[in-house]
Write a structure and sequence with these properties.
Number of domains: 3
Strand order of the largest sheet: 8-7-6-5-1-2-3-16-15
Strand content: 5-15%
Number of helices: 21
Number of strands: 17
Largest sheet: 9 strands, mixed
Oligomer: single chain
Distance between the termini: 98 Å
CATH architecture of the largest domain: 3-Layer(aba) Sandwich
Helix content: 40-55%
Structural class: alpha/beta
Length: 588
């Protein structure tokens, strides 16, 4: 089967990591899978980058205005304190359906595509009539723009009065949800959710009422993320084997929903236990952290072992193996990669029972699930596992067994394969085509051998009419005004630089004139018969502008004392030329 997979970024974040795993496992099952993305991974052979095709200047200006208004400014300037997770209306994107690139494929799998594909662009891909599977890494495919709703259930209604926006004069989230319900309601468009929780939310939204929602858990490399000897793993990262360790990590620890503040409270509650306090005082406990750390962690009064961003699976597996407990204090989450990875490495997790986490963690069996964001209860659970090695080891074994049973790569790939076949996709055996097939005509090749396709940005008709069209035109006018302001500022800056250069040159001229022999020789004359120019260097005040300095130079050059010394200056120059000619042997 020929499958095109779409994702904004092939390298960073949990969604791209899960996407790459699925691509690898589908490829191992014999399918030809290409990744189409904005930010390619140079390590991936079948990775096509999308670059913007330049239109005429007026069209480009309007496209840029649409991006700034709908994809950037409107939301950014109105965000409330409810959440700092990305909010992407997904209204402007690249038009790939007409590029010729997609003709050779049998099916399409669309992952995290904010700032890449728009709602309307996805609908155009679906209009090609081939199976389209939208893999849900968060809630964005079925909300008015939020990637996580922060507890709001507006997606089940109409997304009006969005709590993540302070004000919403265009009622944009409501319009986005309406467009999704209209454009994604096709029998060949199916959503795949990794967890029952996310699948239930997607079904509740009504966005996929035609193609439906299927639950297929994500997967993990069970041959890479494996249990290791904890003493050896601790030694490998520079720790004493006897130290108790708890691990916290996320790609972006500053994201509010990841619960970093909860972790700080958990650590504080743990200090109430005399045994933990004794370990802390003696250096017998360490907090391990990876990802983008925050200053608050250092303020916890625990010894911190910051592992930074880890982009190597072997090093990451070592970090998990070095931990006695993995702490997952998220407020909102789907099926965190870090949870699966920790469990695969035999490290029991302690997490809040949010989102899809209870699908994987069975409380008291392969980890602990804490309800209600009770940080004191989470602290007690972490403490118990740190101080009861036998119980932690039993949970570790159960965690590994759960991963081996439900989350291997091939199991996820087989389920996707069955879904695509059920949606009417052609099997690999029935499509013997040359690699990339008729899509070759749409491809360009870089000097480094990489492949890319050029596609224009597309602004849907829905945004060019009515109140949205009015707002877009106002944004275009504002962009024009801002561009003119930038041009004028550049002109002023250049003028100021020229003025500074002229002023410096005049300073040098004045310095030379006022220290010349002609000027010094007539000092007595000036004191008696010629008064200095008021406000000049010759008087008491320093000139403040190039115009004043120029006037001063001209006054000096036309002064009586300067003119009286003209014959002497001419005689001096003649003598100087004569002396040079004598030295050069030009005069015998």
């Amino acid at each position: 089967m020929r499958i095109a997979v779409f994702g904004t970024d092939a390298t960073h974040g949990g969604a791209s990591r899960a996407m790459r795993r699925l691509i690898a496992s589908l490829s191992r099952r014999g399918h030809a899978v290409d990744l189409v993305c904005l930010t390619p991974d140079p390590r991936m052979a079948d990775c096509l980058a999308v670059r913007r095709r330049v239109k005429s200047d007026p069209e480009n200006a309007m496209d840029d205005a649409a991006v700034r208004l709908f994809n950037e400014r409107y939301v950014r300037e109105r965000r409330s304190a409810v959440s700092n997770t990305l909010f992407a209306p997904q209204l402007i994107g690249y038009a790939l359906a007409d590029s010729g690139l997609l003709e050779a494929y049998d099916a399409f799998n669309i992952h995290w595509v904010s700032h890449f594909l728009s709602i309307h662009g996805i609908a155009e891909i679906a209009a090609l009539g081939k199976p389209v599977v939208l893999t849900l890494h968060d809630m964005n495919f079925f909300t008015g723009g939020c990637h996580y709703s922060a507890g709001c259930r507006g997606y089940a209604a109409d997304c009006r009065d969005c709590p993540q926006l302070r004000d919403d004069p265009l009622e944009l989230p409501a319009a986005v949800l309406r467009w999704k319900r209209r454009l994604y309601a096709e029998p060949n468009v199916t959503a795949v959710a990794p967890t029952r929780w996310l699948g239930g939310c997607a079904a509740e939204s009504g966005v996929f009422r035609e193609g439906g929602v299927t639950v297929i858990p994500n997967s993990i490399e069970t041959d890479v993320f494996v249990p290791g000897a904890k003493d050896a793993a601790k030694a490998a990262i520079g720790l004493d084997p006897g130290v108790k360790t708890l691990l916290f990590g996320a790609y972006n620890n500053d994201e509010h929903r990841k619960g970093f503040d909860h972790l700080a409270e958990v650590l504080r509650h743990m200090r109430a236990d005399a045994r933990i306090e004794a370990l802390r005082g003696s250096g017998g406990i360490r907090v391990l952290a990876f990802g983008r750390s925050t200053p608050d962690l250092a303020a916890s009064d625990y010894p911190i072992h910051d592992l930074g961003l880890i982009d190597d699976d072997i090093r990451l597996a070592t970090a998990y193996a070095a931990a006695d407990v993995f702490v997952l204090p998220s407020r909102e989450d789907n099926q965190p990669n870090v949870m699966l990875e920790a469990m695969a490495c035999g490290t029991p997790p302690v997490a809040f029972g949010v989102g899809g986490i209870p699908d994987t963690i069975t409380d008291g069996v392969n980890g602990r699930v804490i309800q209600g964001f009770d940080t004191a209860a989470m602290a007690a659970a972490v403490t118990e596992l740190l101080l009861a090695p036998a119980r932690a080891a039993a949970m570790a074994r159960a965690a590994r067994e759960a991963i081996e049973e439900s989350y291997p790569l091939d199991l996820q790939a087989a389920r996707y394969e069955a879904l695509l076949q059920a949606m009417g996709a052609k099997t690999a055996a029935a499509t013997e085509r040359v690699r990339r097939g008729v899509a070759d005509a749409a491809l360009s090749h870089g000097r480094d051998g990489s492949c890319f396709v050029e596609a224009p940005l597309s602004v849907p008709v829905d945004l060019k009419t009515g109140v949205y069209g009015f707002a877009l035109n106002q944004q275009a006018k504002l962009d024009t005004a801002e561009a003119e302001l930038r041009r004028l500022r550049a002109v002023v800056h250049q003028h100021e630089r020229e003025q500074e250069a002229l002023s410096a040159r005049l300073d040098a001229i004045l310095f030379g004139l006022t220290r010349s022999t002609s000027w010094k020789a007539t000092r007595t004359l000036r004191g008696g018969r010629e008064r200095a120019t008021p406000g000049s260097r010759l008087g008491t005040d320093r000139p403040v502008s190039a115009r004043q300095k120029l006037a001063e130079v001209m006054t000096l050059l036309h002064s009586t004392s300067w003119e009286m010394m003209a014959p002497l200056r001419l005689l001096h120059r003649a003598a100087d030329r004569l002396w040079r000619r004598l030295r050069e042997g030009l005069i015998p």
